[in-house]
Design a protein that fits this description.
- The protein has 2 domains: 106 residues, Jelly Rolls, CATH 2.60.120.380; 75 residues.
- The N and C termini lie far apart (83 Å).
- The chain contains 3 helices and 8 strands.
- Strand 4 and strand 5 form a beta hairpin.
- It is α+β, with helices and mostly antiparallel strands.
- The radius of gyration is 30 Å and the shape is elongated.
- The longest helix has 69 residues.
- It is 44% helix and 29% strand.
């Protein structure tokens, strides 16, 4: 693989790791987003909620078992805030924004901006370079090395998933085959029983010899 193809592949991989979205949060309501992440992956994010006088907004991130990974009540509106956590197992985590409006007040819709990064894109290579006293070229090489390793790991996971799906399909096909053979035997047995039953019935009625 030449340098140009590797650069394109790495770019596609980077785009797949970062997600930026904007949505509206209705008053006295909540909005949740779900994301699947592999084990031991760093996830970072930035979010901002638009101004709404008198309203409060909370956010919480939790896994499928209800464990809270990050949480903040009464988010300061109009400010860019950050969060980060590391996943322990392959799981689906959910990030929710909750709007609270006083009973005596008419609420307004708020705009939420959310940027999430995971894996390599979540790492601060500038900080790593400063700590290790690396040159900019060395930092970039370190980043490309980590990207290449992450791509290899992703391909390995894809291959493993493909093997598991193939094994499942083969097992399903085998069960379907056995069930089909069993059904054929049952149908053949019932047909044979019906044939002897009707022959005996007709002989008793002296309709056949």
């Amino acid at each position: 693989m030449d340098h140009a193809h590797l650069k394109i592949l790495l770019t596609i991989f980077v785009i797949g790791q970062a997600q930026a979205i904007m949505f509206y949060l209705e008053p006295s309501n909540h909005k949740c987003l779900k994301e699947e992440v592999h084990a031991n992956v760093l996830v970072t994010g930035e979010y901002e909620v638009s101004e709404a006088l008198g309203q409060k907004t909370d956010y919480v991130i939790q896994d499928s078992k209800g464990h809270i990974l990050s949480q903040k009540d009464d988010i300061p509106h109009g400010k860019l805030l950050k969060f980060s956590f590391v996943t322990e197992t392959y799981d689906t985590f959910e990030i929710c924004f909750i709007s609270h409006v006083p009973n005596h007040q008419r609420g307004v819709r708020q705009e939420v901006m959310l940027v999430m990064k995971r894996g390599i894109e979540a790492k601060s290579y500038e900080g790593i370079g400063e700590a290790a006293k690396l040159k900019p070229v060395e930092v970039e090489l370190k980043r490309l090395e980590d990207l290449s390793e992450a791509i290899v790991q992703d391909f390995a996971r894809m291959r493993k998933n493909e093997e598991e799906m193939r094994d499942t399909n083969e097992a399903t096909n085998t069960r379907v085959l056995y069930f089909s053979l069993f059904s054929i035997c049952i149908v053949f047995g019932l047909s044979t029983w019906q044939l002897f039953y009707f022959r005996r019935f007709f002989r008793m009625k002296k309709l056949i010899e």
